[in-house]
Amino acid sequence: xxxxxxxxxxxxxxxxxxxxxxxxxxxxxxxxxxxxxxxxxxxxxxxxxxxxxxxxxxxxxxxxxxxxxxxxxxxxxxxxxxxxxxxxxxxxxxxxxxxxxxxxxxxxxxxxxxxxxxxxxxxxxxxxxxxxxxxxxxxxxxxxxxxxxxxxxxxxxxxxxxxxxxxxxxxxxxxxxxxxxxxxxxxxxxxxxxxxxxxxxxxxxxx
Length: 207
Known about the structure:
It is a single chain. The chain is an alpha+beta fold and 207 residues long. Helix content is 29%, strand content 27%.
């Protein structure tokens, strides 16, 4: 069983002025807005290929999330940075974002009628002081049996092209999913329950 939370540095500075989302994802931003949090976004611009594919999925997404948060932390003097990274895994194969409609069709055909896992790594980095924590969430997603025309029609909407695994459960991709086991928001890209727990540890929630 993977260890779900790794505390890196317990030093802290209580006076945090700004919450930063180290992501350009509108879906993650929408989740933070739903939570009523005051934040700004800044994309991390890291090379995601720097993390080796030999890592287990939880280790990979945690490392990427932490790298994103650390990179954005370099631009601020006083802030709490949220880093996140999401991947789709089926039978030990990692599915990233499709590079073409044909690749999206291939990914969705791979997921068709099967169960897969969605992993999201979540990291918080506090500046100044350097306190850091990192964790992950896993959700099991079962696709229903799809006809080739259903897959092609979904890909034609354009929705799959910027999403890991080539689908968005919060959008038209909901029609592909039969059931899930775990956090729905994790599949969207930001596990809320995990995030709330971590933010509480940093005293960063609005009461």
